[in-house]
Inverse folding.
């Protein structure tokens, strides 16, 4: 059961400007290509379970009516819409992503779903490493399948800490880098034998082959907790969900 939601890897500040521009362009093109089949693949490859995991992530964020909320690396907006329902018509939600195509699809979904509370959503193209918001701006933040792909994870966590109000929480859903050999083996088997072959049918094998290496270089639950605490959060807890295949980091400012 896999959620194949992908979010754009943002660039490390240490790279040269010339290299960064080329990589940013390549990544934007990649995520623009997968956008049309993004949601269908999520449903197919996770057997619909990603919807449960996302609801759990939003619940852990502590979002409530009237809040100002941020969904980072929002993709086509699944978490953003759930956050919108929590905030209600008196609240405000910003869905931020690096891919214009993904944001376009999210905006189209907002129009088609035509739910009153969804009028509180604003879509914004932006960089998770340089958030265009003032300090202490948001009451809660979610990030779905984005932190693993951000090059400078420490800076991304520091930015989330900066724009959160004191006492507020961030909830980060992603693949779990399991320390259990059996779980790790099953995760790799699923990618090789289910994920990539299914993506191949859509002509997207190349775009999805990177998953295994991205999980290999990701942080374990304990390492994610330390990352949050080092960024200044007062509390951090990582929960394994989906049979250990997925994980959710909850951190409080």
């Amino acid at each position: 059961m896999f959620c194949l939601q992908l979010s754009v890897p943002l660039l490390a500040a240490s790279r040269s400007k010339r290299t960064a521009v080329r990589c940013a362009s390549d990544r934007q093109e990649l995520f623009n290509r997968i956008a049309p089949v993004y949601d269908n693949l999520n449903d197919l490859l996770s057997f619909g379970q990603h919807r449960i995991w996302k609801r759990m992530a939003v619940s852990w964020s502590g979002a409530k009516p009237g809040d100002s909320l941020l969904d980072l690396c929002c993709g086509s907006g699944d978490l953003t819409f759930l956050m919108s329902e929590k905030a209600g018509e008196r609240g405000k939600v910003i869905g931020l992503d690096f891919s214009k195509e993904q944001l376009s699809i999210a905006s189209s979904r907002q129009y088609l779903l035509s739910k009153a509370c969804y009028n509180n959503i604003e879509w914004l193209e932006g960089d998770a490493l340089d958030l265009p918001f003032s300090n202490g701006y948001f009451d809660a933040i979610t990030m779905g399948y984005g932190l693993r792909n951000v090059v400078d994870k420490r800076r991304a966590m520091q930015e989330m800490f900066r724009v959160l109000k004191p006492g507020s929480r961030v909830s980060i859903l992603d693949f779990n880098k399991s320390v259990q050999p059996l779980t790790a083996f099953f995760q790799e088997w699923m990618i090789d034998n289910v994920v990539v072959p299914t993506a191949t049918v859509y002509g997207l094998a190349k775009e999805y082959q990177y998953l295994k290496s991205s999980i290999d270089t990701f942080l374990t639950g304990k390492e994610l907790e330390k990352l949050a605490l080092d960024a200044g959060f007062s509390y951090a807890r990582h929960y394994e969900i989906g049979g250990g295949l997925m994980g959710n980091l909850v951190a409080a400012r």
